[in-house]
Amino acid sequence: AAAADLAGRHVVISAGGTREPLDPVRFLGNRSSGKQGYALARTAVARGARVTLVVANTGLADPAGADVVRVETAQQLHEAVFKAAADADAVVMAAAVADFRPARYAAGKIKKKDGEEPAPLELVRNPDILAELSAARPKPGQVVVGFAAETDDVLANGLAKLTRKGCDLLVVNEVGEHKTFGSEQNEAVVLAPDGTRTPVPYGPKEALADVVWDLVLQRW
Ligand code: PMT
């Protein structure tokens, strides 16, 4: 898609994985590299969109032509995505967001004490950014896209997640050795509430990104 078919549109993309701090040296995190989100950003820039990329903890260089906002935690991602979404024509949540965070943050490094059992880790819920955004739609006509990385019952879990989150499209990718997390490649099925399923064969993350933009364009 060489055409500037996204010209005049503002799109917001989240990429990477959130980190939920336990103390100054430790966090709960996940294996997202950010590559899928960056591929979405690069393809959107190439197709003429104004792009805001909200990045959680990646080691990747800022993509040319995108406005980059860096965050660490799910709560910070929530705030940054909602701020950018106010005038966005589409929001694509490719980030892996922690559903829970430690209930308490220890200001000093947590120590192990000889002969003592470790204290149980208490967690509290994080905001569900995708579900909140799907319900709020800060800009009329805004298209909201979610991702789901699944290990089993991939399609059934994807369909349930599409309904639960209330988004317009859900990109379901199966966790595998040479795809999804960390890889240059991906393979997916894009689900829509009308029952439409768009399979995207194994290939570079840019190819999946371009299919996502094609489907977003159809919804505008
Ligand atoms: O970064 P890479 O290494 O390239 O890997 C890409 C990816 C695997 C991270 C990406 O393709 C992907 O699937 N991202 C979503 C990961 C996931 O498992 O999401 P989830 O099932 O926990 O959440 C579903 C959707 O809700 C996601 O769009 C997520 O951004 C969103 N969510 C989740 C929890 C939460 N509290 N708020 C959210 O908005």
UniProtKB/TrEMBL annotation:
Domain DNA/pantothenate metabolism flavoprotein C-terminal: 6-217
Catalytic activity: N-[(R)-4-phosphopantothenoyl]-L-cysteine + H(+) = (R)-4'-phosphopantetheine + CO2; (R)-4'-phosphopantothenate + L-cysteine + CTP = N-[(R)-4-phosphopantothenoyl]-L-cysteine + CMP + diphosphate + H(+)
The keyword Magnesium is assigned to this record: yes
Cofactor(s) named in the record: FMN; Mg(2+)
Comment on bound cofactor: Binds 1 FMN per subunit.
GO molecular function: phosphopantothenate--cysteine ligase activity; phosphopantothenoylcysteine decarboxylase activity
Record function comment: Catalyzes two steps in the biosynthesis of coenzyme A. In the first step cysteine is conjugated to 4'-phosphopantothenate to form 4-phosphopantothenoylcysteine, in the latter compound is decarboxylated to form 4'-phosphopantotheine.
Name of the protein described by the UniProt record: Coenzyme A biosynthesis bifunctional protein CoaBC
Organism: Streptantibioticus rubrisoli
First and last residues shown, out of full length: 181 to 400 of 400
